[in-house]
Amino acid sequence: MSFCVLISICSLLSLPFYLQTNTFQCILTTDGIFSFALLKYSAMLWLPGQRLFHRALMGYTNGKGIFYNDPQTQKNNTYASKGRYRPDQTIGNTGLRGQWAYRLDLQNTGKYSTNYQQKCWHWHLNEPNPSAWNTNIHSCPCHLTQAKEDNRFIPEIMLFNHLTEQKLEDNKITFQSALPNRFTAGRRCTYSSGYLIAGITDRYFIYSKEATTIEDHMKGDLEPFEWCCRKSSLCNLFYEKRPVDKCENYTSLGLGQVYGTLHMKTFDGVEYIFHGLGEYVIVRLSSPKGNNIFTLQGQSNLMIKNSTFNTPVIFEKLAAFYQGMVMMKVEWACSKSENELSVAVNDKDIILNKAEDLEVYRFSQNQLALVCQKGIRCSAIYFSGLQVTVELAIGGFLQATVYLPHSFYKRTLGLLGLWSSTAADEFLFPNGDHLKFRAGSFPTEEEIYKFQQSWLVPPPESLFPSRQPLKMWKTFKPTFSSVLLATTDDKLLNDINRTCSSNPACVYDILVTNNTNVGLQTKNYIIKYEKSTVIFGNMPPTFIGPRLIQVKVNRTTKVQFTAKDPNNDKVSFALVPPIPDGASISSATGLLTWTPQNIKPVQLTIQVNDDFSGSFMILSILMCNCMNNGECDYNTTTQTYLQGKFQVVGCLCPEMFTGEFCSDVQDHCKGHPCFPGLKCTNQIGLHIFQCDRCPSATIPNGKEGYKCFRNGEN
Question: In CATH, what is the architecture of 667-714?
Answer without folding.
Answer: Ribbon (2.10)
